[in-house]
């Protein structure tokens, strides 16, 4: 056994023997992230991935505020309204074990930052310094600044003094927009083709849609994923489960299930069962035979402007969604001021009763918006159009940052139009789900 493997085994034995480790995250690639918080506040917190120590962090006796608009004004020295947060130092594994690496890899640094944004999710910024004992600190600083995960102190044009300063401000809103993931490593929330398309969106070129309900010029939309392909994964810490979105598998890429005397895909059989349940039929009105549902989904899969997906918790199917481009959707005619080229919309249902509830709903509903914004940086707005009488979905929409923009009438229903701008969504703390503040505590 070489020395590197001996060191790894020694670290893993140390982690296993310690009772102070707790699970914080499971990364989209299924790597487990644990932390060990020292009882002595002066000692650093350890971060391990799959049992291997990857870094540490500790508080320094300073707090910093990211002051921007007041710089260069008479208010520069009077900015108590801008929140200050404790300065953290990031340390290499060697700080805890002299035989461990004195470097931190970029994927591991991103995981450490993910951990910080989970533990300190109420902070819009996290001031950090990279320890001088990190041998590749300059590489990591370049990664933070180039990717947009962090920025330096704000200065006026021509003032470059902050460039040589060690302090960085990690930014919550850029982290959740996927900064530092695509093109840097494969641990991000977008998976498969979705990650590829987000890294290199299809350049603008115009195409046209003509249907009985829509006549619209709009951008060419990207190709669909493979049936059954995972497009998004994110662990929800407050639930201890992995949320996953998969492109609809109509024909069946895995073992089939029996449904109405034939063998069909699990997705189709589940979709059929859900739509024949009373609670789904009340909202969707699509009760019917298997063939009706097969043709329904087939039509959506053939439509470049619609992405039908199945949602699951830890691999167990729980709901369905249709993710649409608004400009070539029939709702576009009702959008005040007109639909924009990359506006997205959604229609959703929860099929399994056991997965209902406000906290779970906020988790998967905000994650759909997360996916839509991550999928294309040109998407500036997500638009919903729930029934005006559906108080529950309107309340849920507002809980993730949407606002009711207007009320209007389709030929077949009265709806409210909900809007969610990108800037607002990522400015708020709506994605961390570090704890459950929605479900009443059991007595």
Task: Walk me through the topology.
Blueprint: H1 3-17, E1 21-26, E2 32-36, E3 45-49, E4 52-64, E5 85-91, H2 106-119, E6 125-130, H3 137-147, E7 150-151, E8 168-171, H4 172-175, H5 192-199, E9 206-210, E10 215-219, E11 230-236, E12 241-247, E13 257-259, E14 262-264, H6 266-275, H7 278-284, H8 290-301, E15 306-313, E16 316-325, E17 344-350, H9 358-375, E18 381-384, H10 391-399, E19 403-409, E20 414-421, H11 422-427
Parallel strand pairs: 5-6, 17-18
Antiparallel strand pairs: 1-2, 2-3, 3-4, 4-5, 6-8, 7-8, 9-10, 11-12, 12-15, 13-14, 15-16, 16-17, 18-20, 19-20
Characterization of the model:
- The protein is of the alpha+beta class and 443 residues long.
- Helices cover 26% and strands 28% of the residues.
- The chain is built from eleven helices and 20 strands.
- The protein has an eight-stranded mixed sheet, with helices on both faces.
- The chain is globular, with a radius of gyration of 24 Å.
Structural descriptors:
single chain; 443 residues; alpha+beta; 8-stranded mixed sheet; 11 helices; 20 strands; globular; disordered N terminus
Roughly what fraction of the amino acids lie in strands?
Answer: 25-35%
Backbone structural class: alpha+beta
- SS elements, strand count: 20
Spatial gap, N to C terminus: 53 Å
Number of helices: 11
Largest sheet: 8 strands, mixed
User: Order of strands side by side in the largest beta sheet?
Assistant: 1-2-3-4-5-6-8-7
Q: Averaged pLDDT, please?
A: 94
User: What is the gyration radius calculated from CA atoms?
Assistant: 24 Å
Overall geometry: globular
Low-confidence blocks of residues: 3-19
The helical percent reads 25-40%
């Amino acid at each position: 056994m070489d020395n590197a493997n001996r060191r790894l085994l020694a670290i893993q034995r140390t982690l296993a023997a310690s009772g102070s480790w707790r699970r914080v995250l499971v990364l989209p690639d299924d790597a487990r992230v644990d932390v060990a918080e020292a009882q002595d506040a002066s000692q650093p917190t350890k971060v391990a991935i799959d049992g291997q120590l990857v870094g540490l962090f500790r508080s320094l006796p300073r707090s910093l505020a990211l002051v921007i608009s007041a710089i260069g004004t008479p208010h520069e020295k009077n900015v108590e309204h801008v929140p200050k947060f404790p300065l953290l130092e990031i340390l290499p594994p060697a700080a805890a074990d002299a035989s461990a690496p004195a470097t931190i890899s970029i994927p591991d640094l991103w995981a450490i930052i993910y951990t910080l944004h989970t533990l300190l999710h109420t902070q819009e910024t996290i001031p950090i310094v990279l320890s001088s004992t990190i041998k590749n600190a300059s590489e990591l600083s370049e990664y933070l600044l180039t990717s947009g995960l962090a920025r330096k102190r704000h200065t006026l044009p021509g003032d470059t003094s902050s460039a040589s300063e060690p302090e960085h401000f990690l930014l919550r809103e850029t982290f959740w927009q996927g900064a530092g993931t695509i093109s840097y490593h494969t641990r991000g929330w977008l998976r498969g083709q979705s990650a590829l398309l987000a890294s290199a969106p299809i350049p603008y070129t115009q195409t046209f849609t003509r249907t009985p309900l829509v006549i619209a010029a709009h951008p060419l939309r990207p190709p669909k994923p493979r049936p059954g392909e995972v497009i998004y994964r994110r662990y929800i810490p407050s639930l201890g489960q992995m949320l996953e979105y998969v492109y609809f598998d109509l024909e069946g890429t895995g073992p089939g299930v029996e449904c109405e005397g034939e063998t069909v895909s699990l997705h189709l059989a589940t979709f059929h069962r859900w739509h024949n349940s009373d609670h789904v039929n009340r909202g969707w009105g699509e009760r019917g035979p298997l063939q009706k549902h097969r043709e329904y989904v087939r039509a959506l899969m053939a439509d470049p402007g619609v992405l039908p997906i199945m949602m699951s918790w830890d691999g167990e199917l729980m709901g369905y969604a249709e993710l649409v481009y608004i400009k070539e959707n029939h709702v576009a005619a009702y959008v005040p001021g007109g639909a924009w080229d990359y506006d997205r919309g959604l229609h959703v249902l929860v099929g399994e009763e056991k997965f209902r509830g406000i906290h779970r709903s906020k988790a998967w509903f905000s994650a759909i918006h997360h996916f839509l914004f991550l999928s294309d940086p040109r998407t500036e707005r997500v638009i919903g159009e729930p029934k005006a009488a559906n108080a529950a979905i309107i309340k849920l929409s507002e809980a993730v940052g949407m606002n009711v923009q207007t009320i209007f009438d389709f030929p077949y229903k009265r709806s409210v139009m909900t809007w969610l701008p990108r800037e607002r969504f990522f400015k708020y703390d709506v994605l961390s789900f570090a704890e459950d503040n929605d479900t009443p505590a059991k007595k």
